[in-house]
Amino acid sequence: MRRLFLMFFLLLAAPAAAQTAAPAPAPNPRVALETSAGRIVVEVFQDKAPISAKNFLRYVDAKRFDGITFYRTVKVADRFGFVQFGVQNAPAKMFPPVKHEPTSQTGIKHLDGTLSMPRLAPGTARGEFTISVGDQPSFDADPARPGDNLGYAAFARVVEGMDVVLKIFDAPTSPTKTLQGSFKGEVPVAPVKIVTARRIAQ
Known about the structure:
Layout: H1 2-20, E1 30-35, E2 38-44, H2 50-61, E3 69-77, E4 80-86, H3 103-106, E5 114-117, E6 128-133, E7 153-160, H4 162-170, E8 173-174, E9 187-188, E10 192-200
Antiparallel strand pairs: 1-2, 1-10, 2-7, 3-4, 3-10, 4-6, 5-6, 5-7, 8-9
């Protein structure tokens, strides 16, 4: 009788043990941008924005950020605007565009330090990226607005090195210089280079 009771107890305990032994979800990947101004580490929200995250990590893993620059600074006010980096539409470095993931779908808001993908029409984003300085709700999707109201696709956030982002943001820009006729007044005098971009262990 005692043996039967013990076997019954073990059968009941087995499912509970199996439940508690379930593996925890893998942490989101982190990427270190080693720049000429210092180190920036970002957490890539693969769990919430898988398409946009995969696109960014594809550029990282292919080493296509190595040697590129932060080529644009939009400074609306002190600690409010964004910096932009990417492959600048270089054909040899670009991957195909990806499906747009609006913030209304992912739940990732454009807060201070958020990375997102600038685009023209939804679904045209490729290899250009911005880092918000200050909260940028105007980049979030807003179904109440008329026309194209899907915003930019946010997918990551700075977790280390926001002081480096601010250093890039506060660096002087040229009042006359442009890039292919665009971004007048927003092009840094001495662009900060990304030396390497690599995934890092956590």
